[in-house]
Structures are given as structure tokens and as C-alpha cells.
UniProtKB/TrEMBL annotation:
Superkingdom, natural source: Archaea
Ranges for region Disordered: 1-82
A single MF term (Gene Ontology): heme binding
Gene Ontology BP annotations: sulfur compound metabolic process
This protein's name: Sulfite oxidase
Matching InterPro entries: Ig_E-set, MoCF_OxRdtse_dimer, Mopterin_OxRdtase_euk, OxRdtase_Mopterin-bd_dom, OxRdtase_Mopterin-bd_sf, TAT_signal
Organism: Salinirubellus salinus
Keywords assigned: Metal-binding, Molybdenum, Oxidoreductase
Amino acid sequence: MSQHQPRTERDSEEASSRDRFVRRRRLLMATGSLAGVGVLAGCGQDTGTPTPAETEPPTEPPTEPPTEPPTETETPEPEQEPLEARYPGLEILSPEPENAQAAARATYTDYITPREEHYIRNHYPTPDIEESEWTVSLTGMVDGEVELSMEQIKHSFRTQSVTHTMQCAGNGRSFFDPQVGGNQWHYGAVGNTVWTGTPVSDILESYGAETSDGHFLTVMGGEHPEGEDIFTRSIPMQKVMDDTLLAYNMNGSPVSPDHGFPVRLLVPGWFGCNNVKWVDRMHVMDSMVIGDEWEEPGAPEDGQRTYTHWQQYSYRVVPEEDTRAEHYEDIPVYDTREQMDQTDEINNAYMYDQVEKSLIGYPGEGQTVSPSPAGTIEIIGVAWAGDDAVETVEVSTDGGETWGEAEFFGPVGAPTGWRQFRYVWQEPSAGEHTLVSRATDERGYTQPASISAPEDQLRSIQDDQFPWNQGGYGNNAHLVHAVTCTVEE
Ligand SMILES: Nc1nc2c(c(=O)[nH]1)N[C@H]1C(S)=C(S)[C@@H](COP(=O)(O)O)O[C@H]1N2
Ligand SMILES: [Mo]
């Protein structure tokens, strides 16, 4: 077990992205040693647009126009359209690293989220990757280590598609009181899309990987920020073998650069952080990524970047003033909700399988709506529960005082995709109303009503209160997600 104390300045996933982002647009492709911890040659080199030579400004305005236009010596690289133009359905939280959430509740009336409305969550800037030069290496407990081209990944194994509700572990963070630091996601860091790719189990079996329970696939992102931690997550082998993909298509089109082009890990139903983008290396291990070998200053070769931060220090449900912060090689249960129930044994749940949650998409926040001729309003939304199915959704039109059951409609994809629900609001009275929805999953877990006070620590979950936590993770309290709307006469 690691002896390292949490580096408090990096305890929130957000500290890193906000304060220390790297301005590097180009990633040079070199995968380095397969045996050692990825050595990336050429990273951090500045290959930005050359600045044209500058001349001293004249002290007096020139009287004659120059006879010849200034000659361009170098053609600058074509500028990409700004983020807001590329994703008109998103509200930008930061342009670099790229962070953006759904701009309107209306996203949550449809089954499929268009790419332009699907949130983006980056710790470091989106790398610029050439698909033909990209490889994914497989290392660790395998018969033979290998480096796979995108061509091989796409065409040497089976292809599968899965519907997945991708949600950032920090979605709903802005509702924590007192406020916690970091990106202030409201409800918009979630979307439902169809992902197509290669089952990771096919690749592991082909290369004789150790795939029994208790092992982990540690997956590293390929953006390799200079002097920063490598985005790395350890996925339990049971989940990897069950349904995890190396995905290259999103809604039938190539995954966009911001969403992980040319290939990302897709862990159906699990929190966004597990879905490593720009996958560079997969390492088969008999524990989660942990210990000196993977941490500074022991990280081989460069002594700077660590591989443990995003698995062991971030994405944990840490109560106020918690100093225990143990780091585990393995835990008895991966479901995030169940870990929270076992808070004595597992201190600080890891954000793996998602908790049950629902969002109203119509009416939208602050919207004025009018009843149909029959005097009804149809409330529409979506509900999901990670890799468990949603069993029921209830809707309240009086701020949670009374509830009625909604009905499901729309496509039934994998349980890892959300369900659409509708609730017919009979005879709504004119004026302002507070609409709330709450989902219950197949195991009987229901969204709690509110967020606890910090001093209630983690046990509040048994008391219908989502535990306030330092990172602002996992918020599925229903009251804070309510919609206020006005019904016209
Ligand atoms: N390599 C890499 N993968 C990553 C991240 C990252 O910063 N780097 N962010 C993670 C987080 S926190 C989330 S919520 C999802 C977001 O995926 P999206 O941007 O496609 O919505 O990607 C995950 N994969
Ligand atoms: Mo996230």
C-alpha cells in the first residue's frame, strides 16, 4: 500500500486543469520503450506557428503607402474554428483545456445526444493525433507485448456497438453547499451516445493476457502533458472482459478529437473518468495502479509524471477533513453506491459504476409553458443507473411533496444507456411550479433528496442525503436538480 499522502493541492480533479494546464497543441508520435513506463520522445516540444519577424514601430506615421505588400515567408497552420463554433450546443467552461457542458435542458428530451451537445471534459488540451501513426501498446501480464495499429484494432477483431450514458463524476458539483472548487458543472456533463469499437476482451485473449478476477487493466491516455500526471485509470478485469470497448466511432462517425480520436476506452455505464481518451497503452496488472514504481519521484525514465494521481488521489468520495486517504490495491466491490454503503471498510469510494439519476428535459429551467387544449402538460426527461437498469421514475410537480409514476418511452438500448420518460401533468394551475424527478434502479436504490452538510460525513447516504464530499463527486440528489417553470393561464 502506498505511503504517499494526498497532495492536497491536487485533491480535486479540477485543480490540475484550472491552474496548470499545458499549452501544447501538437503531440509528436513516438511510443518509446514497451517494457518501461511509456517513454515519450519529443513531448513538450513547441512546434507552434512561427511568429513573423517584427520590426520596430515607426516613430512617425509613414507618408507613403508601401509600394509592395509585405511578403509572407511562412504559411501559418490553418486555425481551427473556436470551440463554441464547433459545439454550438455547449456552454464553454474553459476553452483550454477544453471543458464544456450541455447548454440547455432540451438535450435531455432526446434518446441520442448529438456530438455537438455532448459535454467535453479534459484535464489537458486535446492532442492533435494522426490516426495512421497512432498505436496502442499492450504490456504487463501478457504472453507477448505488442503495439497495435489503428488498422489492426479496427479490422483484426470483432466489432461491437453499445449505448452508453457518459457522465462526468463531477456533474452536479455546482449544487454543493458549501461550494467545492473546480469546474462548476450544473446538470450538463452527461450525454447518451452509441459507441462502436473492438471488445478489449478479444485483444487480451489474442495476446494471452492474464484475465482472471482480481486483475486490472491499467489504461493510459496519450496526451502526455509535460511535467503533469498521465491520465491513467485501472479498470477491474471483470468489467473489461464483460463489455469494455476500444471505441473509435461515436454515433456512427469517427470520434471527434475532443472526445478521444482516434480511440478511447469505453466502459459502459461507468463514470466518465474511466473512459480514457486517446488510449496509448494498456497494462495488465494484479492490482490497481499504486506504489512507488508508478509515482514520483520513482517513475522510471523521467522522474516527473506519475501514473497514480487520477486513480488513487482524485475521483474518490472524500469527506470533510479526511486525512486517512488510504490507497488500495483492490477493493471488494466496484459499484460506487455499494462502496458508499461500506464506508467503514472502503474509506473513500472510487468513482466506478454510476449511481442512479434522472433529469427533466422539458419544461426547461425558467421556461413559460402552456397546457394543451385538454389541459395537460407533458413532462419529459431521461433516467439512468450506470450498468444497472432503471426500474421506475417518479415525478413531482410540487417540489417533492407528492409524487406520481412516469412511464418510459423511446428506444430500449443497453441498460448502460438512459431511458426516456414522460409524465402527464393533469390540470396544472397557472403560476410558478417546481418540477422534480427521481429514479429507482433495479437493485432498489433511489436518488436521495438532498446533499448532506459536510459534518455529516459519509454515513448520510443511509439517511436519504447524498454525502457532501471534497471533490464534489457523484451528486444525484433530486431536489437540487429541480426545474422551476411558469404555467400560463
Ligand atoms: N486521456 C484522457 N482521458 C479522459 C480525460 C482526460 O482528461 N484525459 N477526462 C476523463 C473525464 S474526467 C471524463 S468525464 C470523460 C469525458 O469524456 P468526453 O470529453 O468525451 O465527454 O473523459 C475521460 N477521459
Ligand atoms: Mo469527469
